[in-house]
Amino acid sequence: MLIEPRLAEFLARYPQLKLELFTDDALSDVVAGGFDAGIRIGHVLAKDMIALPVDAGHRRLVVATPDYLRRFGVPRTPADLAAHDCIRFRFPGSGRLSTWQFVDDNGLRELEVEGRLIFADDRLTRVATRAGLGVSQQFEPMVIDDLARGTLVCVLEAWTPPLPGFYIYYPARRLMPPKLRVFIDFLREPLLPGANSTNGANAPA
Questions:
Q1: Which fold has domain 58-162?
Q2: Which pTM value belongs to this model?
């Protein structure tokens, strides 16, 4: 969400730079992996890392097709999801199933949902959702066009919390490589006054 939509712009602006992206859900050690920097939600990192925000936060929306909701009903509370086919995501690195997050009077809580489809690729989760095979929880930027077209409908919006934004993090060293500086500045441009916020993906860079 953060990098892919802006790749063409970055490559056109800095034709002399090479960019390698590696996606991993296991909170990799970017130094040991030979990367210049990483991106993850939140800023809780090792003490020898510097973290800078690259977006202003985002929501994860529960979405389904209008046809699915006509056939199986509209969930009114998170507890109603027990009667629905929830399309789940399994982190490929850790093998852990992602929980769904909601907010209520007691604050943020995580919910274990059930369903017949599990994917380790979030793109497939969206494909299955668009095909009317169940409901899924998606980062808002990834489904905003579907919502605008009406191909997907957001439910449980009142229960949807704003989540922390993404941060780019890198070792706290005296000299920063110029290539890393221009990449960081490029990613943080949407946070500048007058710019639209851009949301991100979890990818060491």
A1: D-Maltodextrin-Binding Protein; domain 2 (3.40.190)
A2: 0.74
